[in-house]
Design brief:
- The protein has six helices and twelve strands.
- With 251 residues, it is α+β, with helices and mostly antiparallel strands.
- It has two domains: 197 residues, BirA Bifunctional Protein, domain 2; 43 residues, SH3 type barrels (Roll), CATH 2.30.30.100.
- The protein is globular.
Length: 251
């Protein structure tokens, strides 16, 4: 068996479960220091400092969400695709449990009926030899009641809110990890197919957008994505900017 085959099968092979943590990503980074293996997965019932992009807090109630992070050691050229793989795996899990299809909002939101049902965050570090360590974190709203959280009530969805029934978070976990094994394999073997699956359901494409970044804002038409998942925005001048990160402020 090749090392890549071993990597595929290892995802979710070892799972550590916690009642309460600051963040599952924090726990995984601590495990990296203890030389935890590729595929090590951490799941928590509650996060007291769960985070999204731009250090935003991830809102969840106890047992309402799948809160998980996975340790990965991808080839360097696959690292930019990990968030895409995570978003697709979450979408695969939603479809498996509900039969509903998700859309995506660049760069890392999973939408169900136009509202955010899942967020994905990837943190990547590389050593001086170019070896990559990544932690892929996912928060999937399973039984969350958005109306009970005023700061997210209008923009959030959960499996329960859309289907009118509750789901076992353990089932969501198993469906997500199964999806991630498949999507990680695509990262390694068929990256363009992975990007194609994602971009075909990317709600951002074709819209006028303002993308906020740390170095300023870019305004134009989102024309597509490139081979690394960067958003291609055509400015009024005709120039095209390839954006790896940012926040869609308007569509």
């Amino acid at each position: 068996m090749s090392s890549q085959d071993e990597q595929r099968g290892a995802i979710g092979g070892q799972v550590m479960r916690f009642q309460r943590v600051t963040s599952t990503m924090d726990v995984v980074w601590q495990l990296v220091e203890a030389e935890a293996p590729h595929g090590m997965t951490v799941v928590a019932q509650v996060q007291t400092a769960g985070r999204g992009r731009f250090s935003r807090r991830w809102v969840s109630g106890e047992g309402d969400c799948l809160l998980t992070s996975v340790l990965l050691h991808p080839p360097a050229d696959a690292a930019p695709l990990l968030s895409i793989a995570g978003a697709l795996a979450a979408s695969d899990a939603v479809r498996a449990l509900t039969g509903l299809a998700c859309m995506f909002k660049w760069p890392n939101d999973v939408l169900l009926n136009g509202r955010k049902v899942c967020g994905v965050l990837t943190e990547v570090r590389a050593d001086t030899d170019g070896n990559v360590t990544a932690v892929l974190g996912v928060g999937l709203n399973v039984n969350l009641r958005p109306e009970e959280h005023l700061d997210i009530a209008e923009g959030a969805a959960s499996l329960a809110s859309e289907m009118g029934i509750e789901f076992a978070v353990a089932d969501a976990e198993q469906a997500f990890l199964a999806g991630l094994r498949e999507r990680y394999a695509q990262c390694l073997d068929a990256p363009q197919a992975l990007i194609g699956d994602w971009s075909a359901r990317l709600s951002t494409i074709g819209k006028e957008v303002t993308v906020r970044r740390q170095d300023g804002a870019v305004h134009g038409i989102a024309e597509g994505v490139d081979s690394e998942g960067r958003l291609l925005v055509r400015l009024a001048s005709g120039d095209v900017h390839a954006l790896y990160a940012g926040e869609i402020a308007a569509t």
